[in-house]
Amino acid sequence: MDACDKKVLPALLFSPKGVKIRFYLSFILLFLLSVSIYCGADYNPKPKEHCPASCGPITVPFPFGLQEGCFANQKFHLNCTYDNLTLSFSEGAQYYVTNLSVEDGTLTVSNMVNGHNEKEEILIYTQNGYVFEDPMEDEFYFSMESDNHLIKWAVANLTCHIAMQKGTMYACRSSYSYCLNVTYGEIFMGYRCKCSSGFQGNPYVNDGCRDIDECSLPNYCNQTCQNFHGGYTCMKNRNLLLGIATGFGCGLGSIVIAVCVVVFTKKWKKGMQKRIRKEYFKKNHGLLLQQMISDESATNKTNIFSLEELEKATNNFDATRVLGHGGHGTVYKGILSDQRVVAIKKSKIVEQIETDQFINEVVILSQIIHRNVVKLFGCCLESEVPLLVYEFISNGTLHDLLHNDISGQCLLSWDDRVRIALEAAGALAYLHSAAAIPIFHRDVKSSNILMDSNFTTKVSDFGASRSLSLDETHVVTIVQGTFGYLDPEYYHTGQLTEKSDVYSFGVILVELLTRKKPIFINDQGAKQNLSQYFVEGLQEGAIMEIMDPQVVKEANPEEIDDICSLTEACLRLRRRDRPTMKEVDMRLQFLRTKRLRKCKTLTAIDEDIGHFLCPKVSNSGAQMNVANAGNLTSKGISSCYSLEQELASSVTLPR
Question: How does the record say this protein sits in the membrane (predicted)?
């Protein structure tokens, strides 16, 4: 029989003659009880994963466990039945576990599971008042406190010195733990583990002992408390005052240093910004531009604005100030320091050619003085992308007026459309022939024809324009423009002439007649070119079918024929067959003069007929806001002018 099975216990027989003996035995059992449950097993410091952590309300920490592989060895095996935690001994006795502590190395058990009286079933040894089975092999010792058995336990029957040499079988796994030799009275039990001072938790698992925040616990420190890893400091009032004074001094010093750093940083940034702006000014050919616009008269001086002024005018280029996005940049609404409302175009700079186009636009606009060309106030060259400052045009574009609400009646009457075409043609004719140097716009389209507060036409966006010397008839360039408006011959040859603008203007005339976009979706759901659609309708004699119903209603057939004839001439594929812009301007002037003369004659003959054919305020006027009603009448939108007034206007205002 081996040491585990060997029971060296004297039998104390319970008989009627041994009443006195049983009394003393029961008294001893009330205080101390020891049972050997297991011996000789190795300690396993690493439990398997996903072990049950509790049984009912009681937490079961390692080295104890409920399943195979979850406890360190067999003596730490507990059972969980119907949320009741039980501990079994080698004699077959089972106790309910009511509390378990790895920090104190104790278990508390009560009431045998089978209900028998353990005082009558367990055989014991006694030595110096303690109850045990074999002090050399067992590590569980009992003491009785009222109805509860308090069990003190050890990990293994080894000293700490020997246990530390076991390596992988050493039980104290946490970094902040230490080994403690355990005795029960005078009897050596073995060793167990405990968290170091300032730490708490489970020392039997890796990182099980964690720092205690003593400052968050009551009765630790009534003064100023400062926690640190593994401990805390409790400062007295004197140290507190010293700390406050030190902190105040450090804080004040930090503020002074911070203020100095901020001031220095601002100055450094300001200096850096000045240097960067100077570099941009040079990169954007600022010196060259200054020389090119320096000969302007004082009354038409093109200003060079600072970036700071334009940032202030646009609230740092706030997105809410965006008026629109063009082919050559984004346009913002701004208010200058002199309260002028302006439009500021921020160019798109991708390549050097874009910068050249910007300089080109400034030079061209600085030379132009015409009532139907948008006025350039100045520019800014201190940013990475150059900025242009124009007069603000408040009523949008011709494209918006024609196409934004195609389902409703157009805001523009027939008289409005003829006048707008005439004003735009006059501006382009001026660029081609009356300016100091001939200028080709190269991007004529309805979205580049703006309407000011009086609905006067303003031609804009000269970023793609080209100027020619007087002895040049054309220039070869990279093809630029907008599909639907692009001159087919210019597209195929790259040769830019004034006739390229004439073709694009012809497309605008078709838009005014039909209210269709240059590229539109036809009845079959396919995309179609407007100029081709118009020419085919003209050739098939179905021109009235493709007209805007409002035009058919307000214009007489003779006027429609005249406009269609002029439009067809502008849209001819060969540029030599097209009229010049000056000829287009003259034909439109003749058409409008004839209409106004007829309007005057009819008014004299029959006032009712005259009002019908040429009302003082067009039907569109009723749809415009009341604030503009007076301006529309005074400026002559759909009004009946006398021939003398029209001719006087043509003479006095530059074309």
Answer: Single-pass type I membrane protein
Annotated binding site: 346
CATH number of the CATH domain containing 550: 1.10.510.10
H/E segment holding residue 487:
none
Q: Do 497 and 633 belong to one domain? A: yes
Q: Using N-to-C axis directions, what is the helix angle for 414-429 and 498-514, rounded to 10°?
A: 170
Q: What is the DSSP string of 387-450?
A: EEEEE---S-BHHHHHHTTTTS--SS-HHHHHHHHHHHHHHHHIIIIISSS-EE-S---GGGEE
Rounded Cα distance between 630 and 410, Å, is 20
* Residue 117 lies in domain: 16-153
Number of domains in the chain: 3
- Select from 392, 427, 456 the last residue of a domain: 392
| R_g over Cα of the chain | 51
Task: Write the single-letter amino acid at 528.
Answer: Q
DSSP labels for 581-650?
HHHHHHHHHHHHHHHHHHHHHHHHH-HHHHHHHS-SS-GGGGGS-GGGHHHHHHHTTT----HHHHHHHH
Read off the DSSP letter of residue 377.
E
Q: Is residue 420 domain-shared with residue 496, that is, in the same domain?
A: yes
Of 392, 407, 442, the last residue of a domain is: 392
pLDDT at 134 over 50: no
- pLDDT exceeding 90 applies to what percent of the chain? 25
Task: Mark whether 443 is an active-site residue.
Answer: yes
Among residues 138, 415, 416, 443, the one annotated as catalytic is 443
pLDDT in tens, 342-362: 989 887 665 666 666 667 667
CA atoms within 13 A on the CB side of 485: 22
Residues 273-315: tens digit of each pLDDT = 777 777 777 776 666 666 666 655 545 567 888 888 999 999 9
Residues 456, 270: Cα–Cα separation, whole Å: 44
Coil, strand, or helix at residue 50?
A: coil
CA distances from 65 to 44, 75, 193 (A): 12, 10, 17
* Residue 239: per-residue pLDDT: 59
- Does one domain contain both 326 and 411? no
Binding site for ATP, residues? 346
527-554 confidence digits (pLDDT tens): 999 999 999 999 988 889 999 999 999 9
Q: What is the CATH number of the domain that holds 366?
A: 3.30.200.20
pLDDT reading at 512 higher than 90:
yes
Q: What is the arithmetic mean of pLDDT over 428-456?
A: 84
Is the same domain home to 403 and 533? Answer: yes
Note whether 388 and 295 are same-domain residues: yes
